[in-house]
Write a structure and sequence with these properties.
Shape: globular
Strand content: 15-25%
Number of strands: 21
Largest sheet: 5 strands, mixed
CATH superfamily of the largest domain: Dipeptide-binding Protein, Domain 3
Radius of gyration: 26 Å
Strand order of the largest sheet: 18-17-19-13-20
Distance between the termini: 55 Å
Number of domains: 3
Length: 583
């Protein structure tokens, strides 16, 4: 038997076994719960360290932040904080922001949540030995915390410079109970300032290492999970089910009409773990789960979404925008791609309308920028998607000097490499992550269109880990990937500043003196109108330089049993707020 055929058969057998296992699992019975599908077993439920999607869906019911984004309005709302901070400028262009925690906010043991817990949580993030490198730079702008001696619920954060990220950065700061996560008081001898500014060598400390090992350990990944949210973890069966239980005397019930983060109705939130959406879909049809997002797009489009669907009577069926987008990244330092005319031609070869129709069955929107579409004040209205146009793409390539010199159907150009002239063929390799059919279709559409104008596109799928390695090392020509956007304004430096080509996420080598200055100004500009103008300038520069071909933002596809009321869609993951459902 050929290896390829054997691997296909093994894959089919594995899927059948997965489906059988999924259907044979013991069904969970409860009288007041929401049973929802999730796509994978979380690796852990430790705030800051956990990065997978399922973990974030689950622990937002267990832990809280000072501020977060409301699922319906996309606006920042107060959660643990009483209100927005009072702000004043202090010496050296720094900012002091003073906050106060809600008076009734307490931990499960009845002790008050105070500024000391905020300080502890900041120290956890900044500790060099906790496994959250992806977050540490976000909190570099907070250099110090001062907790009021008269009122421990009042504290001030000192930001290292004027910044627009005063509140939005705190939406990622999950507040932890020090008495649970640091019973020994290991971090008591350290302060936020020294963890911010001391060098790595200075922080090679045995106690800090001990805390890091403890916090990263299985004890706080899966066993001891404790926060100030409405629910507590009561059961975790690996690769099968996670159960959260509503706290009887949760402090947040006092604010249940204020915003979505205080909606907590079902007695239990049950997360049924499936290893693929088809198993989850079968469980939905068999009434073993009541809620599913990320429904298989073809099935959703044909069987569920139509108004005459048989499922409409029993389910709330809706879509919601996602805060993520796909794009084609272009290595601007590749000799074949360094000319803006070539990049512009590629943009005109991407039939995005066809991509939306074929890969998404219409459940997607075109995107033209890295900013979230809800941030209309910060989106440049003058930027339109590049039109699919073979004739214009052909003319751009000719203008750039790429001609079919030997009449073999592929364009060539005489280029100087290592001081020698040689004929170079316009053949480009595009990568995408294996298993992503939507991105595979995008590659195929580009390949088909490019062939018609004499550009050879070679499609090479890679395992995600290998693709990411190539991006970090800049060893690619073209790739398709995605970013998760957010309704919050974020610092564009990590992706769009030239300094971020090494160690950051500027994989495409975008950036020059003009764009770098705009990026640097954006983070310092406190005036919303001026900041919006800077965003629009940066978007236009990116549009003209074409380091990315922006593609689509797919819609979330959701079904919720009509057993529940107070069901609404959201662009925030997972597309609904299960704790707000009412029986």
């Amino acid at each position: 038997m050929k290896r390829s055929n054997m691997m296909k058969k093994l894959g089919i057998v594995a899927m059948l076994l997965s489906l059988t296992w999924s259907c044979n699992r013991a069904e969970y019975e409860c009288s007041d719960c929401v049973v929802q599908y999730v796509a994978s077993d979380p690796k852990q439920l430790t705030p800051f360290n956990a990065t997978d999607e399922t973990a974030n869906i689950i622990f937002q019911h267990i832990f809280q932040t000072l501020f977060s984004f409301d699922y319906q309005t996309n606006k920042i709302v107060s959660v643990l904080a009483k209100a927005k901070p009072s702000i004043k400028k202090i010496e050296n262009k720094k900012i002091e922001a003073t906050f106060e925690i809600r008076e009734s906010a307490v931990w499960d043991d009845g002790s008050p949540i105070t500024g000391d817990d905020i300080a502890f949580s900041l120290k956890v993030v900044k500790c060099p030995f906790t496994d959250n490198q992806h977050l540490k730079t976000d909190f570099d702008i907070i250099e110090k915390i001062v907790v009021s001696k008269e009122n421990r619920k009042r504290f001030s954060l000192i930001y290292s410079n004027s910044t627009m990220l005063l509140e939005s950065v705190l939406t990622n700061l999950w507040i932890l109970p020090k008495q649970v996560y640091d019973k020994q008081g290991i971090l008591d001898d350290y302060d936020v300032y020294e963890l911010t500014y001391k060098s790595e060598d200075e922080l090679q400390d045995a106690n800090l290492k001990a805390f890091g090992e403890l916090y990263n350990s299985p004890k706080y990944q899966k066993e001891t999970i404790n926060g100030s949210g409405a629910y507590r973890l009561v059961s975790w069966s690996n690769n099968e089910r996670i159960i959260l239980e509503l706290k009887e005397r949760w402090w947040g019930f006092d604010y249940q009409n204020e915003n979505q983060w205080f909606e907590a109705n079902p007695k239990e939130l049950v997360f049924e773990i499936y290893d693929n959406p088809y198993s989850g879909y079968k469980a939905l049809k068999n009434k073993k789960v009541q809620v599913m997002n990320d429904m298989p797009v073809a099935t959703f489009a044909k069987d569920w979404y139509p108004k005459d669907s048989e499922y409409q009577a029993d389910y709330h069926i809706f879509t919601a925008p996602t805060f993520s987008y796909d794009y084609i990244g272009i290595n601007m330092r590749s000799p074949k791609l360094s000319d803006t005319l070539v990049r512009q031609a590629l943009a005109h070869l991407m039939d995005i309308d066809k991509l939306i129709a074929e890969a998404c069955y219409g459940f997607a929107d075109k995107v033209t920028s890295f900013t979230h579409p809800s941030l209309t004040d910060f989106t440049n209205p003058d930027i339109l998607p590049y039109e699919f146009n073979l004739i214009f793409a052909d003319s751009l390539l000719a203008k750039a000097g790429w001609l079919d010199l030997d009449s073999n159907g592929v364009r060539e150009k005489i280029m100087v490499q290592d001081s020698l002239e040689e004929v170079v063929e316009l053949s480009l390799t595009i990568n995408y992550n294996t298993g992503n059919d939507r991105r595979k279709i995008a590659c195929q559409l580009l390949q088909q269109a490019a062939k018609k104008v004499g550009v050879k596109i070679v499609i090479k799928p890679l395992e995600l880990v290998n693709l990411l390695d190539n991006l970090r090392q800049h060893t690619f020509e073209l790739y398709i990937a995605g970013w998760v956007a957010s309704p919050k304004l974020s610092d564009p430096k990590n992706v769009w500043h030239s300094e971020s080509t090494n160690g950051g996420s500027n994989y495409v080598y975008f950036g020059n003196e003009q764009s770098d200055k705009i990026v640097e100004k954006i983070n310092r500009e406190m005036n919303p109108a001026k900041r919006a103008d800077l965003y629009k300038q940066l978007q236009m520069l990116i549009h003209k330089e074409i380091p990315y071909i922006f593609l689509i933002s797919q819609h979330q596809r959701i079904a919720v049993s009509k057993h529940f009321k107070n069901v609404y869609g959201s662009g925030m993951n997972p597309g609904y707020w299960a704790a707000g459902f009412v029986n």
